[in-house]
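Schema walk-through. Below, the input block comes first and the output block second. Nothing else is stored per chain. Lengths vary across the set, and this one has 149 residues.
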Amino acid sequence: MKKFLLDIRRFFYTVLYSFKEPSYGILLSELNKKERDLFFSMPREDRIHSFLLLRDYKPDTDDDKLIYVQKRVIIFHDIGKRFERPSLIKRILRSLRFTFFKNDKVYFDHALLGSDILKSEGFSDEIVDIVRRHHTKSADVMFLKKLEG
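--- output ---
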């Protein structure tokens, strides 16, 4: 049920922010110039998605290094989608979890593509590895799974 409600929320934010992006203040304060440029290379829907997840993030640790890693994973986990520029209709349908985009190779390979992008940009092996596995059920990606429902 929680997943369904989060999908509905994502749908409404997708429609709402298709016309005007949010103020990314909290997110941008976390990033250096290179990371901001990388963030803005992502499609708008994915920037909004990352922003909403970061806004909802509540660390369950006091380990500053782990918090840093988790925040970078939240922000950049969908960076592999930056080569795709979906239409508004496709974004809305995807937000509602319609799954007839099976031939959309870039979308389904985005975790691997994203990890390659982050590796080439000099991100740590830990961040690269978690982004690569962010659709798995590994224990170290559960913080992201909780946010996404």
